[in-house]
Write a structure and sequence with these properties.
This protein is an all-alpha fold. It has 17 helices and no strands. 79% of the residues lie in helices and 0% in strands. 32% of the residues are buried. The chain crosses the membrane at residues 12-30, 121-142, 149-170, 205-224, 299-316, 322-340. Keywords: Membrane, Transmembrane, Transmembrane helix.
């Protein structure tokens, strides 16, 4: 009975610890948001979604919102420099940025909802990202449900260092996307019907239908938002750099430009995120060894799929931004944390037996 009571007390202490850390992450991320330039694009997209169609009026409302949500020095940073100043001064330039942002309607809609609490759309984007960060911390921790006190204490900080801290403080939809993806994967693991996906028992026709719906959704969102297409955004982001008038950019991508973009992305990853690269390589090697012995579990396959997504994402868009790979990093940490926690629990169970045998001898 004493052991049961101690276990319950430890679980309660763990939940309180997790709640305090999650709340702190949300509050700290919201109040210390990075106010990256994307906040302007998503704020403008929100006003457009709310029915603002006039180009001049859209620009005025957007920058008034940003001004109210940020400190004067931050607003100056967001509106100075050749590109930023041009978008600030010319409403047409801001209008031409919208297709890059209106393609993410869920994040935009949630930011509008968040603005009811914050008073500004810009504040709404920060609130959504901060809340997603807090929920990701809870999901990552509960996916392990560590029994080891040391692991329970350290896991939140490992998740934070894996990119969660950056996700929660950026006005981008990456945190929301990571939350949806991680929640879906954990749902598939815990419940019988979705788990069929991880076990590979879903009929191929169903898989084809799901892929078809996903592809149709992406194509529909691109068409609805008037997106400029893959090559244009590749050039805009990775080669020529941000342009005030992306609709007027000429298609001048050459093979040298593309190879240079891959080299820069790889250099960014290696120089700034060496730990994450090591985590990916180490996890891939460990799972490859398990696969050779025929011991892969369904969750192992999910981790391998996430690592495959990292590779495909980099091949398609070599930005080298760590926030694009957080789900894979989180799954790798969950995998290793479960292994360490299981090893620790087995060791603790053996310790009393060893003590009894020594006493008997």
């Amino acid at each position: 009975m004493k052991t049961v009571g101690n276990t319950r007390a430890l679980k309660l202490a763990g939940l309180v610890y997790l709640a305090v850390l999650s709340l702190f992450l949300v509050l700290n991320s919201y109040t210390r948001n990075h106010h990256n330039w994307d906040v302007i694009g998503y704020t403008a997209a929100a006003y457009k979604l709310m029915g603002e169609t006039g180009t001049d009026r859209l620009s005025a409302r957007t920058y008034d919102d940003i001004r109210r949500a940020t400190a004067p020095e931050t607003f100056e940073k967001l509106t100075t420099g050749d590109y930023r100043a041009a978008v600030y001064q010319d409403p047409e330039a801001l209008r031409q940025q919208l297709p890059f942002y209106s393609i993410r309607p869920l994040y935009v809609a949630l930011s509008i909802a968040g603005s009811k609490l914050t008073g500004t759309i810009a504040g709404g984007t920060a609130l959504v990202s901060a809340l997603c960060g807090g929920l990701l911390l809870i999901l990552g921790w509960t996916a392990v449900s560590p029994r080891s006190i040391a692991l329970a204490a350290l896991l939140p900080f490992a998740l934070y260092e894996a990119g969660l801290g950056s996700l929660a403080r950026l006005s981008t939809p990456d945190g929301l996307a990571a939350l949806v993806a991680l929640a879906a994967l954990l749902l598939c693991q815990r419940h019988p019907r979705p788990a069929l996906l991880l076990h590979g028992r879903v009929p191929r026709l169903w898989i084809a239908a799901m892929l078809g719906v996903g592809a149709a959704t992406v194509v529909g969102l691109n068409a609805f938002s008037g997106h400029y297409g893959y090559l244009r955004i590749f050039d805009f982001t990775l080669v020529s750099g941000p342009q005030p008038y992306p609709a007027e950019m000429e298609e001048t991508l050459g093979m040298t430009d593309i190879l240079d973009a891959y080299a820069r992305g790889l250099q960014r990853l290696v120089s700034k995120d060496t730990g994450m690269i090591a985590l990916f390589i180490g996890t891939a090697g460990f799972l490859a060894a398990k696969a050779m012995r025929g011991r892969l579990l369904p969750f192992d396959k999910a981790v391998l799929a996430a690592l495959g997504f990292v590779l495909l994402h980099f091949l398609a868009f070599p930005s080298g931004f760590v926030r694009h790979y957080f789900v894979a990093a989180c799954l790798c940490l969950i995998l290793w944390a479960r292994l360490i926690d299981g090893w620790s629990a087995r060791r603790q169970r053996r310790s009393p037996d060893d003590a009894e045998r020594q006493a008997a001898s």
